[in-house]
From TrEMBL:
<feature type="signal peptide">
    <location>
        <begin position="1"/>
        <end position="27"/>
    </location>
</feature>
<protein>
    <submittedName>
        <fullName>Extracellular solute-binding protein</fullName>
    </submittedName>
</protein>
<dbReference type="Pfam" id="PF01547">
    <property type="entry name" value="SBP_bac_1"/>
</dbReference>
<keyword id="KW-0732">Signal</keyword>
<dbReference type="InterPro" id="IPR006059">
    <property type="entry name" value="SBP"/>
</dbReference>
<dbReference type="InterPro" id="IPR050490">
    <property type="entry name" value="Bact_solute-bd_prot1"/>
</dbReference>
Length: 443
């Protein structure tokens, strides 16, 4: 059975294209960074972090016995496809790879990742929040070291809300009322967008309403529990579908050129975002010169019982093809293990750190952001969101699950061909069928 699971549960289809970048066989020839100590053990790394070359240079300057050979092998699924090819062929993977937390189970089930509990992961566990550590572990196994996260908040156009006398919403009921006020006032835009291709964003909103979609333990890879048709998810999707049906929110697909323009030109007064959202906004062109941006906590279903949620987050994992797993583990644990490295990540790449020595520092807490008028958005919003995030369990076929979720959400908020309850019941049936066809036993 396991061979069937391993073949079926890849995060993406295996690509036919040849591998590019830094691999176990060509590390010396393909490093995009300088090797300071050529006699030291070289560890090949795939990563797409912005400003990462400076972090790599810093690591290499500070390590005599281990050196990083870094290549950007593509972002997200582009990199994952290359990694899948290497897994299938048995060679060509890097020693260390940047992976989003949501895909760790999809690769660990294929025996593609090293259990870092055997290489000192316990030594650094206390340097991370409980939720961040849960995202990279399963039972006693640890499949990656956390790097950055996406605790969620709300970025809003203060000038627009003030113009229409709208208080900053703290609950979703207030959010809906604000959306109606804005429309009734004849505003040229809408309060916010609910992107049908939100995937992880949508799942985070469902989680805030109580969704626990998967029960999975890498120690028992043949078993999975699926519960995507829970009442909380149905209520949350119904809420957004109702707003969309009334024209109170847009349903534009996220991360298109048009979407990026509307984020910054005033079409959307609110951007419900992860902690990397401020950096994303600042990198867009066409910002309204009169815009006044501020940050606030994400709205809650019950203000007296706030639930913090997370959207995104990346890690460093050691691959099963690593030439020297011990040296590779040093890289995974230590490349973002200094304040100096993290100041590069924060100030030049807008990363939100999960490493507690910098996460809990006065420097990060009190950091002022000129884009937000000098607001200390970490102290005001994102630190509490990160501290309250309890972690999440992803499925070993998360990409497939997200694809199906996107189809059902589109059917509800764009096509209007299904209601929320029917759509999520259909999603439950689809995922159960898929899981059993791939050899999983349903809990």
């Amino acid at each position: 059975m396991k061979s069937k699971l391993l073949a079926a549960s890849g995060v993406v289809a295996v690509a036919a294209a040849a591998l590019t970048g830094c691999s176990a066989g060509d590390a010396a020839e393909s490093c995009t960074n300088e090797i300071v100590n050529p006699d030291a053990t070289q560890v090949s790394v795939w990563a797409w972090y912005p400003a990462f070359e400076e972090v790599v240079d810093l690591f290499n300057q500070n390590h005599d016995d281990v050196q990083i050979c870094w290549t950007n092998a593509g972002q997200g699924n582009d990199e994952y496809t290359k990694f899948s090819t290497a897994i299938e062929s048995g060679s060509g993977a890097p020693d260390v790879i940047m992976l989003e937390a949501e895909v760790l189970s999809s690769f660990s089930i294929r025996d593609a990742l090293v259990d870092l509990s055997e290489y000192g992961a316990a030594e650094v566990k206390d340097d991370y929040t409980e939720g961040a550590w849960k995202d990279v572990s399963s039972g006693d196994a640890v499949y990656a070291i956390p790097v950055d996260g996406g605790p969620m908040g709300m970025l809003y156009r203060k000038d627009i809300l003030d113009q229409y006398g709208i208080p900053v919403p703290t609950t979703w009921d207030e959010f809906a009322a604000a959306a109606k006020t804005l429309k009734d006032a004849g505003a040229p835009g809408v309060l916010a967008d609910f992107p049908p291709n939100g995937r992880a964003y949508t799942q985070a909103l469902f989680a805030q309403a109580g969704s626990v979609p998967f029960d999975y333990d890498n120690a028992k890879p043949g078993e999975i529990g699926i519960d995507v048709a829970d009442q909380g998810s149905k209520d949350a999707l119904s809420f957004w579908a109702d707003l969309a049906d009334q024209g109170l929110v847009a349903v534009d697909e996220a991360f298109t050129a048009d979407y990026n323009t509307m984020l910054v030109d005033g079409t959307y007064a609110i951007y419900v975002a992860a902690a990397w959202g401020p950096g994303y906004l600042q990198g867009l062109e066409g910002t309204d010169e009169n815009a006044v941006w501020q940050a606030a906590p994400v709205p809650q279903w019950d203000a007296s019982n706030p639930v913090q949620i997370n959207w995104g987050g990346s890690t460093f994992a050691v691959t099963s093809q690593a030439k020297d797993p011990e040296a590779a583990a040093v890289v995974a644990k230590e490349v973002f293990g200094t304040e100096e490295a993290w100041k590069i990540g924060i100030e030049q790449a807008a990363l939100f750190p999960l490493w507690k020595p910098i996460l809990e520092s006065d420097y990060f807490r009190d950091l002022e952001y000129p884009f937000f008028g000098g607001q200390q958005i970490n102290k005001d919003v994102f630190l509490d969101a990160a501290a309250g995030y309890a972690g999440f369990t992803f499925s070993p076929f998360q990409n497939y699950a997200y694809d199906q979720l996107q189809q059902e959400v589109t059917a509800v908020v764009v096509d209007g061909s299904k209601d929320a309850s029917t759509a999520l019941d259909d999603l439950q049936a689809t995922l159960e069928t898929y899981a059993t066809e791939q050899g999983f036993e349903l809990k």
